[in-house]
Amino acid sequence: xxxxxxxxxxxxxxxxxxxxxxxxxxxxxxxxxxxxxxxxxxxxxxxxxxxxxxxxxxxxxxxxxxxxxxxxxxxxxxxxxxxxxxxxxxxxxxxxxxxxxxxxxxxxxxxxxxxxxxxxxxxxxxxxxxxxxxxxxx
Length: 138
Description:
The N and C termini lie far apart (50 Å). The chain is globular and about 40 Å long. It has seven helices and no strands. Helix 2 (32-43) runs antiparallel to helix 3, helix 2 (32-43) packs across helix 4 and helix 2 (32-43) crosses helix 5 (96-102). The mean pLDDT is 94. It has one domain (13-131). By secondary structure, it is mostly helical. It has helices spanning 13-21, 32-43, 48-65, 74-90, 96-102, 120-125, 127-131.
């Protein structure tokens, strides 16, 4: 029986980013929670124009490396980056773990924060939204 933790909560923000970019995180350990943590860590001290392309490159590289390139979704990526940036700017957070603890609605992929702006099922299935950023409909 393995005692190795599942997920990445045992990693600090800098190590999470470093290991993710080096493709040293097992696919089973990189869930939605880790996406949000990674976004927070990459945005820390940076603006969206700087952190966004780095985040996208890392996600696309990871998806390709694990044979899941088709899973990358442009709209979901940028929408979550915007949500994380907005929330992170509202108060100081010592780490991504503190951030996700304070914003559990970001971890609910179907009914959480994103659902206020998008029909998540529809946008997830939309081939155009997978390739390019699609603004939310009002």
